[in-house]
Design goal:
Elements lengths: L26 E6 L4 E6 L12 E5 L1 E3 L3 E6 L5 E9 L4 E7 L7 E4 L4 E7 L2 E4 L5 H7 E2 L14 H4 L7 E4 L11 H9 L3 E7 L24 E2 L2 H4 L2
Parallel strand pairs: 3-13, 4-12
Antiparallel strand pairs: 1-2, 5-6, 5-8, 5-11, 6-7, 7-10, 8-9, 9-10, 13-14
Length: about 230
């Protein structure tokens, strides 16, 4: 399977830079396999396509503010770091722009947090980066095709309404369209809602470059599946 088989034209003006006013106003493509037909509806009508005992599986991961912006200690040049994997309380594997020299120091959080590049892509901080501290100095890691500056509103809209398990560095975007009202409508139809946790990781930012997509190496991601979901 060649990578070029997935090429298609996507005009830049069709890449939304912000969410719709209502989460469930997005479009829903409905495929009727019996009739062989395709129709385009609103996501708000999803419950109408479900039957009793159908199962909707939702990823309850919660995006953490893993993007931190600071400056180099020596030159004061801007540094943009995405903290991808926690290796210890103070050490992370990170995507860093621009590249740093081994041993170079970076200042974050108006001087309260410092880090040093100890190895390629490895940042060691001067203190443990708790979730509370990351929420103070970090911002939401919006996808690279979103060209605007993250806003306060992204803290809510880049999360699903059922997010509860912190750990993702990108949102499980298919779930962003659900509302609490829609979830209740699904329950009212006696369909089942099951949860899994999969922390979306660095692999979502890693482009496929191999001509044969089967040679692409996927990054590992942490996940858990509750017993009640297994039996749903």
């Amino acid at each position: 399977m060649n990578l070029s088989e997935f090429d298609y034209y996507l005009p830049k003006e069709l890449i939304a830079q912000g969410p719709l006013g209502r989460r469930d106003s997005s479009r829903l493509m409905v495929v009727d396999r019996k009739r062989g037909s395709v129709s385009h509806k609103s996501f708000s009508g999803l419950a109408g396509y479900l039957q009793e005992d159908d199962v909707i599986a939702l990823n309850d991961t919660k995006v953490i503010p893993a993007r931190i912006i600071g400056h180099k200690k020596d030159t004061l040049g801007k540094v943009d770091a995405l903290l991808c994997d926690r290796l210890s309380g103070r050490t992370f594997r990170a995507l860093i722009k621009p590249n740093l020299r081994i041993g170079q120091e970076v200042i974050f959080g108006h001087g309260s947090v410092k880090a040093k590049l100890t190895k390629e892509k490895i940042l060691e901080f001067n203190k443990e980066l708790t979730l509370e501290l990351m929420e103070r100095i970090g911002v939401m890691p919006l996808p690279p095709y979103i060209k605007r500056i993250p806003s306060k509103a992204d803290e809510e809209r880049y999360q699903t309404v059922y997010a509860k398990s912190p750990g993702a560095i990108a949102s499980p975007t298919a779930g962003l369209h659900f509302t609490k009202k829609l979830l209740q409508e699904i329950k009212d139809r006696s369909a089942n809602i099951a949860s899994v946790t999969l922390h979306v990781g660095i692999g979502t930012f890693k482009p496929v470059k191999c001509p044969d997509v089967r040679q692409h190496i996927m990054e590992k991601e942490a996940f858990s599946v509750p017993a009640q979901t297994v039996s749903a």
